[in-house]
């Protein structure tokens, strides 16, 4: 997929640098290696501490250091913070800017899934969505996985934040379940968005590295409980792949050391949620299936990442939520201008 991008880069007359030094930048570098595209190094806009450790030894430069070299260059970037592309294009020495719409292979739907969705798959869920923006966002997700990927950046707008949708308001006594809490980033975002008005927060993060950061980030805050467990449709065990990175994910296996529970069972011990956020690669629908009774009986509002799955998970998740509780209104919004940042809001 996106062969024309790599072909153009292979023929580029300017040295190519990757913008950024985070986990996405290094996924982009792996794609460049796979596609035989020569890369000179990474660069960032300002001097920074290199927080992530990587095995490759490409030079890491600041934008000012590239300016001082006074040589034209090209830039390749992943889909993160695409809204900043115009700033890079204004640099006098930057002659080309290439975008990799989705460098994460395991988040790219198979082409037969894309074709089916564009043919009639979207029509099967269109009536479930509450507004035209949601319908347009769904179409944009599949369009970006074709050679017409540029249309995505022209048509999609992003939210001010995950908890600032234009469709519902916070409650005074929220019981917030953050599933896939990572290092506490979405807990902190929740606290900032609702002015710290909540009854309790249950934060779930099985990654041992990330969960330590999560615990430290909420230390001293009232009624926030951290759980280092996995959630799924059936109890068992899991193991982490890529622990400590933003692209980490968990896999079911009896050889794993992470305990896994059903959300319905967890709710019995920790209270009924009013708001559930699920941001877990590959397991979204499986986690929802383990929360079937909670969703049917209590109709908590849901914020679900629907673009981190495989196959037809996106459409299947929309159908499942609507069928389990037909009272839900469903909206699709992009948290960021990235194909992988499409979120389903059920309320």
Please give a structural write-up.
There is one protein chain. The protein has about 350 residues and is of the alpha/beta class. It folds into two domains: about 100 residues, NAD(P)-binding Rossmann-like Domain (Rossmann fold, 3-Layer(aba) Sandwich), CATH 3.40.50; about 230 residues, Rossmann fold (3-Layer(aba) Sandwich), CATH 3.40.50. The chain is built from 14 helices and 16 strands. The strands form three sheets. Strands 8-7-6-13-14-16-15 form a seven-stranded mixed β-sheet, with helices on both faces. A hairpin with a 7-residue loop joins strand 15 and strand 16. It is globular and about 60 Å long.
- Summed over residues and divided by their number, the pLDDT gives a mean of 88
- Can you count the beta strands? 16
CATH architectural type of the largest domain: 3-Layer(aba) Sandwich
Strand content: 15-25%
Explain briefly what this protein structure is:
By secondary structure, the protein is α/β, with parallel strands linked by helices. Helices cover 34% and strands 20% of the residues.
